[in-house]
Amino acid sequence: MPIPRQLAPYSAKLGFSGSETLAEIFAILYDDPDSIAVAGAMPGSVREITVKTGLDEQRVRDVVNRLLHKGAISRVINKGEYYRLFPAMIELRDAVVVCPDYTQEFFELWDKLIREEMPLLVPLFKALNLPPLLRVIPIEESVESSSRVLDADSARTLVRNASLIVAIPCPCRTHQKRIGHSPDCPAPRDVNLCLQINGFAESALDRGVGERLSTEEALRRLALAEEAGLVHTTRNNIKDDYFLCNCCPCCCTAMFLHNEVGYTESYAPSRFRAVLDIEKCLGTGCGVCKTKCSFKAISLDGAVTIDSARCFGCGNCAHACPVEAITLKEVRPPEFIRRT
Fold first, then answer.
1. Residue finishing a domain among 112, 128, 144
2. Interacting residues of 338 by C-beta distance below 8 A, sequence separation 6+
3. 7: which strand partners?
4. What is the per-residue pLDDT across 176-228, written as a single tens digit (0 to 9) for each?
5. Which of 38, 47, 92, 118 is the most exposed place for a label (fewest CB within 10 A)?
6. Which residue segment(s) compose the domain that 24 sits in?
7. Other residues' Cβ atoms within 10 Å of the Cβ of residue 125
């Protein structure tokens, strides 16, 4: 199945030019000639797309509304009726899989694209020296008292400073659940833990996805995520619009790339690193910290050992330790967090 001519530049931009799998995904998302024409004419306003495609303006408006609620495009809210295609494959995946109307086949196609074809791009990612898209945020109570905790280091401060919070279904968990994977995922069931903040929250509501949360409810959900051993992550730069994901190694695409493909640049670590007080540790170690480590940084072979090179400073090991033998120590300066 060839990718339609109008969408060929988009497939190339996503990094999957000529992919049969992406062609099948596109056939589901852009499933008629008008949808293909409209998507191929983006970015642009309804009026601009009308001129480019030669379609009736009302027809263009109907098509963009349908594509928007399928998650296949996004609206640039501060520009009114201005629409664009998602610039990255994973952004498109995240937007579409939380919409309820897709078949099992659709989710299996995405799994094939991510697990079989995306790893082939990792050498290119490394050669381009791309900065990580995600940054780990520590569980704040795990940080030693002498270390500085910036607002950007604190999930709770980010929530308290937000003007709008929307919780959506986790795209990664939704995807894995729909194809029957990760039945033992530790994440709480029937509660949305993927938090969209400010402009990202507006975009979710614009697509008809998610639930508004009060600050108190968002803080409660952060606590649920921590008790489940999930990893707080956000975008890897400081902006007014952001997200707070709570990731698990069984479902998360970025953790799949890190743990199974070896693309360690899928995350930027926090500014902290786990440090073990061996004298407090219970004998040869109880092993709770090892089971809680999503990055495979902890080994238990007669004694607990933390591989500092693999530690991303999430704090789950410290949070779970029954004798408080682990703390997070500040090892990177505030300038480590990207501003651009």
1. 128
2. 131, 135, 236, 237, 238, 268
3. none
4. 999 999 999 999 999 999 999 999 999 999 999 999 999 999 999 999 999 99
5. 47
6. 5-128
7. 16
The helix (H) or strand (E) run that includes residue 50 is: helix 46-53
Lookup result for tokens 């709480």 = 188
Confidence tier at 301 by pLDDT (50, 70, 90) = confident
161 and 29 housed in the same domain: no
What stretches of 149-199 adopt beta strand conformation (E)?
Answer: 165-168, 194-197
Query: Which tokens in the block code for residue 217?
Result: 């409810």
Contact 53, 60 (CB under 8 A): yes
In this structure, what CATH number is given to the domain that contains residue 120? 1.10.10.10
Residues 110 and 148 in one domain: no
d(CA 298, CA 305): 6
Q: Which residue has the tokens 């500092």?
A: 308
Domain end among 108, 128, 148: 128
With 0-12 / 13-18 / 19 or more C-beta atoms within 10 angstroms meaning exposed / middle / buried, residue 14 is buried
- Could you give the 3-state DSSP secondary structure of residue 155? helix
Average pLDDT, the chain: 95
Distance CA 4, CA 36 (A): 7
Letter for the amino acid at 21? T
Token duo for residue 260 = 């199974």
